[in-house]
Amino acid sequence: MKISAVNESTVLVVFADSVSPETADLIAQSVIVINQQPDLFVVDMVPSYTSILLTYDLTRIELRTFMSRLNQCLQQDNQETQLSSSMVIELPVYYGPEVSLDAEEISRHTGLSFDEIVSIHSSQEYRVYAIGFAPGFAYLGNTDPRIHIPRKSTPRLKVPAGSLAIAEQQTAIYPKSSPGGWQVIGRTPVNLIDFNRDNLTVFEMGAKVTFTPISREEYLEMGGELPEASLVEEDDKA
């Protein structure tokens, strides 16, 4: 662990050189411990894959004292701290053709059928390694090497809310409609934004995440939305 000053009111704590479940656990534990230290006067905390960026109130504590207290609390034995890694978040996902926008591209790149891709993707347990880009956007890893695929060369201007996507060794869900360059394979009907939480999302650093495939009917019953053309087609069949 290395603590270094970024500026007069911000420090960076680096826990490791590479991403791993162990590092995710350590960061998740450290976030809890830091939140339990009122005398650190932390005003903002940004955890990421291997580090935590901390901003503190410099009118109440000076840099050297802050770094000393921070190092002391992080060096203590905090085994009794309840880790968010014990949390398992289960999310339903519809992997149907109306919402799996990049199914053909992913199949072409991997050489697998889309059914195989869905089976591989939904059988994996993922970890929340970072939360960022947008409120509720959680970077989850690691995906099975068989379905690794680069980001799109030209990002979409608008990715529908709830879209589940993959890129490189990661997977993520777009909580709100936004531009994005990840490869979209499905969509969840679950709203991932929670304004009652400090981090504005159902995700927690270090938590485990699983995806459960659901049918088109289940997706719609749970409040999921489809492109208008698909809904018109469904009405015609009825």
From TrEMBL:
The keyword Cell inner membrane does not apply. Keywords: ATP-binding, Hydrolase, Nucleotide-binding. One of its GO terms (molecular function) is hydrolase activity. The keyword Disulfide bond does not apply. Pfam families: CT_C_D. Residues 1-203 form the Carboxyltransferase domain. This is Allophanate hydrolase.
